[in-house]
C-alpha cells in the first residue's frame, strides 16, 4: 500500500533537489555562524562540563 | 553563567548517582557475559566440539547473542550511565522523573534477558543487530521512548540555557535510533514469536543495511562522541580543543552518516545508483569522523605528561585513536575495489572489533575508572591494576585484529586465485578455511586477553567502592533559568540550540531526508527489481525449511548472494539477480562467508548428501568447521503454523492462490514424501515431519528458479 501512496505524490522527483538546496544553505549558514560566533559564547560553552560541584571541589583543593 | 541575571536566588537540587551506578554495573556484568559468549563463538570456529552438542549453544545462535549483548547490553548500559551522569550536570537539573529513570533501567535489562532467552531458543528475525522478534521490539520501543522523554523533560526543566555539544549527540542518537528501529522492524506477525518482514529481497536488504550501518553510527558512535566530549575534557581537566569544530563535526556527521548504508551491499543485486550513493557518502564521512578524532586527541594537548601516568587518559587516548583507525578503514572498505576483496571475510570482523574493543570498550573503561572514585568520594584503588588492564586490553586488541587481517587477505586471495589452466586454484572452499584456522586460534587468545583485563577492572572497581562511601545524591545549586531577552544580532543556530525540542526536530529532519532519498526510490520504482517470470513463491515445506534455516542462524556463516566476479561464478554458479529474491522475507544474503555461499546449492548434491552433512559435516567434508546438527534428523515439526504463515504472506502480497492456506499442508505432505522416498533409496529412514526433510526441501530449491528458464529456453 505504501508504494501507491508514494507514487501518488506529485513532483516527488523535485524533492531531492529541494533537499539539496536546503542542506547546502544550512551548511553554508552554519559555517558562517561558526566563523563569526562570539568568543564569549564559545568560552561559556567550553566551560560547561566544569560547571558542576565536583570540579569546584577539586579546584578548592588545588 | 554569563547570561543569567546576577543576584537571582539559588535553587537547591541533587543529581542521582544511584542510577549511574546501576547502569555502570549493568554495563560491566553484561559486558562480561557478552564477551564470554564471543570467546565461546571464537573457540567454536576452530573447535566445532565447543558447540556443546545442543541447538542452543551452536554458533548460529550464539553469534547474534554475542553481537546483541555487546552492542545493546554492554555499550547500551554504558551510554545510559554516561548520559545520566553528564546530562543533569550540564543542564544544572536532575533527570526529569526518577521513576522514568528506573523504568528505563529495569525495562532495558528485561529486554536484554528476553533477548538472551529468545535468541538461544531460535526466535529471530535474522536481520543483523535487529534479530529480536516483534513483541520484544515493541517493549524496546517503549523503553527507548521513556529514555527520550526523560532527556527532553530534563531539558525543559534545565537551569543552564545552552545545550553543550554532548547533549546534541545524545538527542540525535535518541531520535535516529527510534526512526531506524521502527522502520527496520516493520513486520507482519504470524504468531506470538514469529513474523515476516514488511519488505522483501532487495528492499529488505537496503532497509536492513540502512539500519545496520546506522545502528553502528547512532548507537556505537554518536552517543560515544557525546561521552567523549564530556568525559575526555573532565579527565584531562581542560576544555575541548575546539568547540567550533565540534559544532561542524556534529552536523556534518549526522547528515552524512545516514546515507552510507549501501556500502554493505556493494556488488550485490542492489541497484547500481544506490551502491554509488553509499560509496560516495562513505568516503565523505572520513572528514567529520576525523574532525571528531582530531578534536578528541588535541584536547590532550599540553597534557601528554598526564597521559603517561594516568590510566584513564591512556584508555581514552587509545579509544579515540581506535575511532580514528576504524573511521579511516570504513571509507576504505567502502571503495568497490577494496570491498571486492574484503567483503564476506574476517576483515569486516577485524574492523568492527577495532571499533567495539578499542573505541567503545576503552572509552567505557576510562569512563568507569573516572566515575567510580567520584561517586564513592575516594581515589582509584589501584592505578597499577588499571595500567595492567590497559596493557592486557591493548595487547588483546592487537592479538584479535592482526590475525583477522591476515586470515581475511589469505582467504580472499585464495578464493580468487586461478591456476594456469584458468580454473580455480582452490576449488574446494574448505581448503581456504583450513588454511586460516591458526589465525582463528590467535584471535581467541586476543579475545581471552581482553576479557581477562575486564576482570581486573571489576576487582579494582569493587575495591574502590569498598574503600569509599557512596554518595547516592550529589547536591548542587544554581539560579533558575531567567526569561531570555532576545538579542538583536543573534544568529539562527544559536537560537535553535536554545530550543531543545526544535533542535531535536531539525536533527531528525537531517537524518530522515537522507534515509528517504535512498529508500523511497527503491520501493517506488519497479525497474529497480527486474522481475523474472520463473521465480515462484516457496512451497509450504520449503517455507518451513527456510524458517528453520533462519531459526538456526545459518545466515551467520553462509551468504546467499553471488557477486558478478568470475572467481565467484566459477565456484558457485550464475551470479545472483535482484528478481530472484522477491519472495524472500526476510532476505538472507548474509555478510560473512565462514562457509561457502549457498545461493546455488539447490540440486548441487543429492538429498542424502545433505542428510549426512547435517548429521555430521565432517563425514562429507573432512576437516569442516561446521557444527553438526544431528538433532535435525530426529526433531519433529507439527506444521500446524503453515496455514497462518501462508495467510500472512498473502497479506504481504505473495501470490499464493486464494484459499491455499487450507490445502497447503497437503502439498507439504506430498513434497515431504518425495524427499523421504529419495532418502530411502540411499538406505536412510526418516520421518516425513522431521526437521531435516523441510531443510533439505529448502536447500534443494535455493537458486534453482532461474535454471528453469534456461531449461525452457534450451527446449
Task: List the keywords.
heterodimer; A: disordered C terminus; B: 715 residues; mainly alpha; two-stranded antiparallel sheet; two-stranded antiparallel ribbon; 4 strands; 3% strand; globular; disordered N terminus
Question: Concise description?
Answer:
Chain A has 62 residues and is mostly helical. Helices cover 74% and strands 0% of the residues of chain A. The chains are: A mainly alpha (62), B mainly alpha (715).
Q: What does this 3D model show about the protein?
A:
The complex is a heterodimer of chains A (62) and B (715). Chain A is an all-alpha fold and 62 residues long. Chain A is 74% helix and 0% strand. Chain A is elongated, with a radius of gyration of 23 Å. Chain B is mainly alpha-helical and 715 residues long. Helix content of chain B is 65%, strand content 3%. Chain B is built from 26 helices and 4 strands. A two-stranded antiparallel ribbon of chain B has the order 1-4. In chain B, strands 2-3 form a two-stranded antiparallel sheet. In chain B, strand 2 and strand 3 form a beta hairpin. The N terminus of chain B is likely disordered. At the A-B interface, helix 1, helix 2, helix 3 and helix 4 of A face helix 2, helix 6, helix 7, strand 4 and helix 17 of B.
Amino acid at each position: 500500500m505504501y508504494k501507491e501512496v508514494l507514487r501518488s505524490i506529485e513532483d516527488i522527483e523535485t524533492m531531492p533537489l529541494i533537499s539539496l538546496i536546503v542542506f547546502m544553505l544550512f551548511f553554508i549558514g552554519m559555517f558562517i555562524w561558526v566563523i563569526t560566533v562570539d568568543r564569549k559564547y564559545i568560552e561559556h560553552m567550553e566551560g560547561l562540563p566544569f560547571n558542576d560541584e565536583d570540579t569546584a571541589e577539586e579546584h578548592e583543593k588545588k | 553563567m554569563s547570561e543569567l541575571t546576577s543576584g537571582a536566588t539559588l535553587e537547591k537540587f541533587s543529581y542521582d548517582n544511584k542510577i549511574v551506578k546501576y547502569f555502570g554495573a549493568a554495563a560491566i556484568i553484561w559486558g562480561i557475559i557478552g564477551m564470554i559468549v564471543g570467546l565461546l563463538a571464537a573457540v567454536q570456529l576452530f573447535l566445532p566440539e565447543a558447540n556443546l552438542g545442543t541447538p542452543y549453544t551452536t554458533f548460529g545462535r550464539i553469534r547474534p547473542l554475542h553481537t546483541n549483548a555487546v552492542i545493546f547490553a554492554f555499550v547500551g548500559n554504558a551510554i545510559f550511565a554516561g548520559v545520566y551522569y553528564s546530562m543533569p550536570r550540564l543542564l544544572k537539573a536532575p533527570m526529569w522523573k526518577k521513576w522514568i529513570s528506573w523504568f528505563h533501567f529495569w525495562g532495558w535489562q528485561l529486554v536484554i534477558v528476553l533477548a538472551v532467552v529468545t535468541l538461544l531458543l531460535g526466535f529471530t528475525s535474522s536481520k543483523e543487530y535487529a534479530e529480536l522478534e516483534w513483541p520484544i521490539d515493541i517493549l524496546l520501543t517503549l523503553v527507548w521512548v521513556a529514555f527520550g522523554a526523560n532527556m527532553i523533560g530534563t531539558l525543559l526543566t534545565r537551569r543552564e540555557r545552552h545545550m553543550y555539544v554532548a547533549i546534541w549527540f545524545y538527542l540525535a542518537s535518541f531520535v535516529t535510533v527510534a526512526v531506524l528501529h521502527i522502520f527496520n522492524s516493520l513486520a507482519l506477525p504470524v504468531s506470538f514469536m514469529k513474523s515476516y518482514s514488511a519488505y522483501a529481497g532487495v528492499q529488505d536488504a537496503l532497509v536492513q543495511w540502512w539500519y545496520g550501518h546506522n545502528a553502528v553510527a547512532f548507537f556505537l558512535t554518536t552517543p560515544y562522541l557525546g561521552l567523549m566530549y564530556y568525559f575526555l575534557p573532565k579527565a584531562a581537566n581542560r576544555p575541548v580543543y575546539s568547540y567550533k569544530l565540534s559544532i561542524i563535526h556534529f552536523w556534518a556527521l549526522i547528515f552524512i552518516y545516514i546515507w552510507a548504508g549501501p556500502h554493505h551491499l556493494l556488488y550485490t543485486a542492489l541497484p547500481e545508483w544506490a551502491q554509488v550513493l553509499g560509496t560516495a557518502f562513505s568516503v565523505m564521512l572520513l572528514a567529520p569522523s576525523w574532525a571528531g578524532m582530531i578534536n578528541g586527541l588535541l584536547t590532550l594537548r599540553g597534557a601528554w605528561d598526564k597521559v603517561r601516568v594516568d590510566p584513564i587518559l591512556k584508555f581514552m587516548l587509545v579509544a579515540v585513536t581506535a575511532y580514528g583507525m576504524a573511521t579511516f578503514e570504513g571509507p576504505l572498505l567502502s571503495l568497490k575495489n577494496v570491498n571486492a576483496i574484503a567483503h564476506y571475510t574476517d576483515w569486516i570482523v577485524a574492523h568492527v572489533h577495532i571499533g567495539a574493543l578499542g573505541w567503545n570498550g576503552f572509552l567505557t573503561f576510562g569512563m568507569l575508572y573516572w566515575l567510580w572514585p567520584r561517586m564513592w568520594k575516594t581515589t582509584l584503588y589501584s592505578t597499577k591494576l588499571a595500567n595492567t588492564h590497559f596493557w592486557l586490553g591493548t595487547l588483546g586488541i592487537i592479538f584479535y585484529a592482526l590475525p583477522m587481517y591476515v586470515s581475511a587477505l589469505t582467504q580472499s586471495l585464495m578464493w580468487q586465485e586461478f591456476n594456469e589452466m584458468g580454473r580455480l586454484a582452490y576449488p574446494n572452499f574448505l581448503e581456504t578455511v583450513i588454511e586460516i584456522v591458526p589465525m582463528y586460534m590467535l584471535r581467541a587468545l586476543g579475545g581471552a586477553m581482553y576479557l581477562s583485563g575486564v576482570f581486573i577492572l571489576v576487582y579494582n572497581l569493587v575495591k574502590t567502592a569498598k574503600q569509599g562511601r557512596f554518595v547516592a545524591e550529589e547536591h548542587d545549586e544554581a539560579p533558575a533559568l531567567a526569561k531570555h531577552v532576545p538579542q538583536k544580532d543573534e544568529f539562527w543556530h544559536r537560537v535553535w540550540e536554545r530550543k531543545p525540542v526544535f533542535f531535536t526536530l531539525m536533527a531528525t529532519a537531517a537524518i530522515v531526508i537522507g534515509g528517504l532519498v535512498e529508500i523511497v526510490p527503491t520501493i517506488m520504482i519497479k525497474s529497480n527489481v527486474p522481475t523474472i517470470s520463473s521465480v515462484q513463491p516457496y512451497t509450504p515445506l520449503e517455507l518451513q525449511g527456510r524458517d528453520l534455516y533462519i531459526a538456526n542462524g545459518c545466515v551467520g556463516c553462509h551468504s546467499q548472494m553471488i557477486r558478478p566476479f568470475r572467481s565467484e561464478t566459477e565456484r558457485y554458479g550464475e551470479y545472483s539477480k535482484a528478481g530472484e529474491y522477491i519472495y524472500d522475507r526476510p532476505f538472507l544474503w548474509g555478510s560473512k562467508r565462514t562457509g561457502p555461499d549457498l545461493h546455488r546449492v539447490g540440486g548441487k548434491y543429492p538429498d542424502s548428501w545433505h542428510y549426512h552433512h547435517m548429521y555430521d559435516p565432517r563425514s562429507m567434508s573432512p576437516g569442516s568447521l561446521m557444527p553438526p546438527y544431528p538433532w535435525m534428523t530426529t526433531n519433529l515439526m507439527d506444521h500446524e503454523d503453515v496455514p497462518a504463515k501462508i495467510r500472512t504472506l498473502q497479506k504481504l502480497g505473495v501470490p499464493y492462490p486464494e484459499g491455499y492456506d487450507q490445502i497447503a499442508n497437503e502439498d507439504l505432505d506430498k513434497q515431504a514424501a518425495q524427499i523421504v522416498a529419495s532418502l530411502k533409496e540411499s538406505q536412510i529412514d526418516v520421518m516425513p515431519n522431521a526437521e531435516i526433510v523441510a531443510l533439505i526441501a529448502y536447500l534443494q530449491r535455493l537458486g534453482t528458479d532461474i535454471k528453469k528458464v534456461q531449461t525452457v529456453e534450451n527446449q
